[in-house]
Amino acid sequence: GQGEVISALWRYIQHLKAENYQLKRRFLGLDGHPAVRDFALASSDATEISPSLNGDFLAMRSETTIPKPPMFEIADELPRREDAEYDVRSLSDITHIAVHHSAAPADIPPERIAAYHVYSKSHEWPGIGYHFYIGPEGTIYHTQRLDRISWHVYKNNSYTVGVYLAGNFNQSAPPALQLDAAAWLIAWLMQELRIPLENVLGHKEFPFNATACPGYQWDAGLRWKDRLRQAVEGVRSGEKRVMAKVLPHYVLFWKDEEGWAEEDWRAAGAYVARFDAVAGFSEQQARLAELVTIVGGPAGVDPQVEARLRAAGSLVQRVAGKTPQETAALLQRMAREDRKWMKRG
User: In DSSP terms, which residues pair with 160 in a beta bridge?
Assistant: First the structure.
């Protein structure tokens, strides 16, 4: 029953916490310290648990509660004007969600979009116009505070949230991972802000907006508007399962029959300790995390593993220099600068 699942999940989390402590003990050179021995005794019940749990069971959730999707919180890190600010609103004023596309290559990161909005002579806005940015691989970025009346739908900004899907959808529809991420985000926003599905509209559907955004295929041809709405309804009903994450951060290293990432492991010590991350070699454990940091290049942890983790709803970044020394320097700099994820753009 549900109680047994919750109990098993709790035990598994305790197991991971104890396992993570052992990893940090090795990183910090604490073997033999009395406090470590005391912790090992106190944690003996947890370390003996080895449940063979598949991460998919975490998709089970309440039919009435949609978990917040994993997202990078970068609203306060993006370029913005120092001499101008957007007006502020109450969240209760928000009644609609506006869906946008970039009509440009999908690999343009949110930092460049924000810089264009702020610095280009055609804009010079207070900050980025969109509240959320979704990359083609399904990664969600929270780019503007929800209480800001940012500029993204002419004459309709005061009551809308802007959700931006990177890519040009005049001739095609968003890829599956991006569409699924948009559905999860929109379903969660609808729940939190009490917005009905009929108030989720494309940019072009708002009054006074003569634009093709979010693309010709939104409401004609491939009609990805219908596919998005069906996916949103699937998330809301529970038919389309979303995985609630129980670990904030997992650092994933490679390991095979011939060896393991010993050099990367040593290099990541400060980073793992600084951000209180679980570290290990398990794709299944990584699936439980909101953020997964893969250490090393594709010759170590396979890109297919990275793709599966993204498909499972985790935020995934790979920290890899051209040499192991460069990777170590990147990780040490991120720990020193208190940056959990790498800068983009």
Answer: 96
